[in-house]
Structures are given as C-alpha cells and as structure tokens.
UniProtKB/TrEMBL annotation:
Protein name from the UniProt record: Fucosyltransferase
Family under the similarity heading: Belongs to the glycosyltransferase 37 family.
Species assigned in the record: Paspalum notatum var. saurae
Subcellular location: Golgi apparatus
Signal peptide stretch: none
Portion of the full sequence shown: 668 to 1163 of 1174
Organism phylogeny: Eukaryota, Viridiplantae, Streptophyta, Embryophyta, Tracheophyta
Highest rank taxon of the organism: Eukaryota
Length: 496
C-alpha cells in the first residue's frame, strides 16, 4: 500500500508478536514504523520467547520504579540489609559505559540475564541512555531513578571494589554451595553485589559463568553489572540456564539471539528516528540495492590508508558486492556507450559510516571517475564524519545510533572486525556480514581482505576459559556445538 513504501512484504508492525501492543505510537514512532523501512523482515520470534517476554513485562511493571516493591527493595539496600528470602523482587542494574555499541550489547546481555533469573532490569540513564531509546516495557520504565542509592558510586566500581562478586569470593565474604565441606553457607547474602564483567575482569569475577556461583548470586536482591561485552554466549554455557535458553531460542534461532533481543529492546527515540528516516528517504530508498560499509579504524594512523582502501575495494569486488569500475582506458570508450541508462541496470546505493570522510571521498571518486563494467550506477553516501569518538555529547551519540540503524536497513553489510558498532547493525538488520579483518600492521593488506561471518551474532570478546565442573582451565569454544570461536577475534566466542 502507498503508506508502506519500502518493505517488500506487508509490514508486520508487532514483528510476529515480539513487540507488545498498546504502547503510545506518537511518543515512539520507530517502534511501529520501522517495519515499513525494512526490506529484510525480522526472523520469526520463537513462541516461547514471546510468551516469556509478556511475562517478563509483567514482572517489570510489578517491580519497577514507582512501585511499593521497588521502594522496599531500595530501603533494604540503604539499610545495607539483605531482604527476607526469597525477596519479592530482585534486580539487575546495568551501568552505562563506553561507546554506544558496547552499551547496547551490555544492555541486551543484562536483559537476557534478567529474564533468565526473573529479575527486573534497570538501565543506568547516564551516557544518554535515556534520550536515545524508547521505553521497551509497557506501563513502567526501564530507567534507573537518578536518586538510586549506589548511583553516585558507579564510576568508582572497578575490579578492586570490595563488593564485587569476585572480591567477595576471594575474601570469603561470600561462599558458594560449592565450597569445601564443613564451611557454612547459611550466612545471609549481602544487600548487593557488584558484577564486574568488564573486559579486564579477573578469574574470580569470571566465576559468574558457573552454576554454583549463579545459585549463590540468586540470593542477592540487587546485582549491579558493569560490562562492555556481549556476554550472551557465556550464558549459554551455564548449565542451569541451558534448558530455558533452549526453549526460548530453539536450535534454528540460536544464531539470532541478539537479533530478537535488539529488535525487542532498542527503538530509536523520535529525534533519532527523524535522522534515520530523513536520510533513508533522501539517499537510500530509491536504490535497488543498498550496501552498507562500516569503516572503523582502531588505529588512528589508518584514518587515511591507501592499504585499507585497497582492502575494502578488493573485498567488495572479489565477492561481487559492488560492481567493479573499468580501467581508465576501457572506461573512455565504455562511457560513450553507457551515456544513456542501460535498460534494466540496477542502481546501487552505498552507505558508508566512519568517523572520517577519507574512505568515502575515495570510493565516491572511484565511481565518479570511472564507469562500471555493467553500466550500473553507484551512489556513495556518508551521513556524518564526527572526527573522533566523543563522550557525553548528545548530538554525537544520536548520530552514531542513527548510523548504526541506517546500516541495519541495508541489504548487504561490510563491517569492520572487532567493532561492536558493526555488531549492532548486523544483528538489528538480521544480516550476516562480510567482515574486514583488522589490519595486523600498517604495511600490508590482510589476505584475504574479508570473510563471510558464520552468523549475525556479536562476538563475546573476553570469555572465561574455565570448566566449572572439572574446575580447571578449558577451551570454552569447544563445549557446546552452537558456541564457537569468532573469526575476527580468535579467543572470542559467538553463537552460530
Ligand atoms: P566500537 O568501539 O567500534 O566497538 O563501537 P562503539 O559504538 O562501542 O564505540 C565507538 C564510538 O565511536 C561510537 O559509539 C560513536 O560514538 C563513535 N563512532 C565510531 N564509528 C562511528 C561512525 O561510523 N559514525 C559515527 N557517527 N560515530 C562513530
């Protein structure tokens, strides 16, 4: 119909039941309009996941801010006391930390953990987390109230914090039921535990991924989590969670866990949605094919590197993701023949996202200077070039979110290995990307330049390497068939 111009099939506004009905459309236009912009429909959410989400929304309403249960739980925390067991409501607080891609992966990981452990998820509103996204749960807020007693300490929570789970284990303040016989486990649990699941975490912190530790943690009313990682593959290795995870994400959906979580949780706020839709309509909507290329240079010396440019073009040309340009001599004669549009030739729009404009200028120049062998026209666009990563600046984060989302609306994706920015785009889009290897040095192009990823799932960059049952080091990429090592980071883990 005329009002749904971009989707290939009639849009399914609630994404097969993934989204709850009854939320206000005007306060969050993206929730109901995104299906009009997506050509690639979402994967069908598993029925058990849909049922669990509706139940979890109820829990969020029952335990969330502005409820009696929340007030009582906060009082308990202020008093430094553990709640009567079992407490009526338990919580996971997710600290907002590092780049936007990291923050999105962290919130998705904390949410799945909350769902598995029947806890309410509350997201730290700092770092614009309150302005970039709509509320995901009807009738309540997922934002942690600003007067939360521990909020002023979040910045001081590090690997050394005494209340971290790892340090409480080390200092024997806290014991698991796995402790040697004869030690008591009946001591009351602490009022809260800080879960340090940051990339620099230690062996004790990593015990989080063991069953006995999860049993111990289940007694703690408040868990405050700091992570910059996509810990979901680690949750799939906790035996106690495996049955439920198997039901929520049956075998065919294990490569789409983040896809479902992200489409459920992360809806651009109206301001960001304006950035997305205006850009999409102006530059991408009319093309037959949209190719997104995300260029993330972790080494600033590669902000303008002919070698990286060569890596990108050889990736897209070898795999025929974009038409090749003709050599200069051939182009001269060919151009005359193609002076009128080639009947039936496809038009392609390339969306480049990058902090700088150098690669965009070069790739755009290539397609202007030379004709393509097929006579296809290639338009090259880049929404912004912010120069460098910035913190705490509202317009900067809004642009980053809009660009991740625009990438997710592309039909084909080329991403930069190691980048959580690209992971979010591929997961939201439901697209298995081509991934540019992170260059090992400044003097050579990785060979091959890119690889086709095994799944659209993000990589868990710093997993534990421990067998909880045997209590010794182990390769966690070899424990279950659907959790494997990543190709961009060989020690990382991903769902496939
Ligand atoms: P990662 O560092 O690549 O894993 O991704 P993050 O999103 O966690 O952090 C990078 C941050 O740098 C982003 O959140 C943005 O603030 C900024 N950034 C990186 N690449 C881009 C880009 O292509 N476009 C925009 N607008 N910002 C970017």
């Amino acid at each position: 119909s005329g009002s749904f111009p971009y989707a290939r099939s009639p849009p399914d506004r609630l994404l097969g039941g993934l989204l709850p009905d009854g939320l206000d459309e005007r306060s969050c236009r993206s929730r109901y309009e995104s299906s009009m912009y997506r050509r690639n429909p979402s994967r069908k959410p598993p029925p058990r996941l849909v049922a669990k989400l509706r139940k979890h929304e109820e829990l969020q309403r029952r335990c969330g801010p502005n409820t009696d249960a929340y007030s009582r739980a906060v009082q308990q925390l202020r008093a430094g006391e553990s709640a009567a067991e079992p407490p009526e409501c338990k919580y996971v607080v997710s600290i907002s930390y590092r780049g936007l891609g990291n923050r999105i992966l962290a919130a998705a990981s904390a949410f799945l953990y909350a769902v598995l452990t029947d806890r309410a998820l509350l997201v730290d509103p700092s770092n614009e987390m309150d302005e970039l996204f709509c509320e995901p749960f009807p009738g309540t807020t997922w934002l942690l109230p600003r007067d939360f007693p521990l909020a002023s300490h979040f910045n001081n929570f590090t690997i050394d914090t005494a209340e971290s789970y790892g340090n409480m284990l080390k200092n024997k303040v806290f014991r698991t039921d796995d402790a040697p016989a004869g030690t008591t486990t009946t001591q009351p649990p602490p009022a809260f535990a800080y879960l340090h699941l940051d990339h620099d975490y230690g062996d004790e912190d990593k015990m989080f991924f063991c069953d006995a530790d999860q049993r111990a943690l289940s007694r703690v009313q408040w868990l405050v989590m700091r992570t910059d990682l996509y810990t979901v593959p680690g949750l799939f290795l906790v035996t106690a969670f495996q049955e439920e995870l198997g039901a929520l994400f049956p075998e065919a959906e294990r490569d789409a866990v983040f896809h479902h979580l992200a489409r459920y949780l992360f809806h651009p706020s109206n301001h960001v949605w304006g950035l997305v839709t205006r850009y999409y309509r102006a530059y991408l909507a009319r093309a037959d094919l949209r190719v997104g290329i995300q260029v993330r240079n972790f080494d600033p010396r590669q902000a303008q590197s002919p070698l990286v440019l060569h890596q990108i073009t050889s990736c897209v040309w070898t795999h025929k993701l974009l038409p090749e340009v003709l050599a200069a001599a051939a182009a001269a004669t060919e151009e005359l023949e193609h002076a009128v549009p080639v009947p039936g030739a496809k038009s392609t729009a390339v969306l480049i996202t990058s902090l700088r404009s150098w690669y965009y200028e070069r790739i755009k120049g290539l397609y202007w200077d030379r004709a393509t062998a097929t006579g296809e026209d290639v338009g090259v666009h880049q929404p912004s070039h912010e120069g460098q990563q910035q913190f705490g600046k509202r317009s900067h984060d809004g642009r980053a979110w809009a660009e991740m989302y625009l990438l997710s609306l592309c039909d084909v994706l080329v991403t930069s290995g190691w980048s959580t920015f690209g992971y979010v785009a591929q997961g939201l889009g439901g697209v298995r990307p081509w991934v540019l290897h992170k260059p090992a040095n400044l003097t050579s192009v990785p060979d091959p330049p890119c690889f086709r990823d095994a799944s659209m799932e993000p990589c868990f960059h710093s997993p534990h390497v421990y067998d909880c049952k045997l209590k010794r080091g182990a390769d966690t990429g070899k424990m279950v068939p659907h959790v494997r090592h990543c190709e961009d980071i060989s020690w990382g883990l991903k769902l496939v």
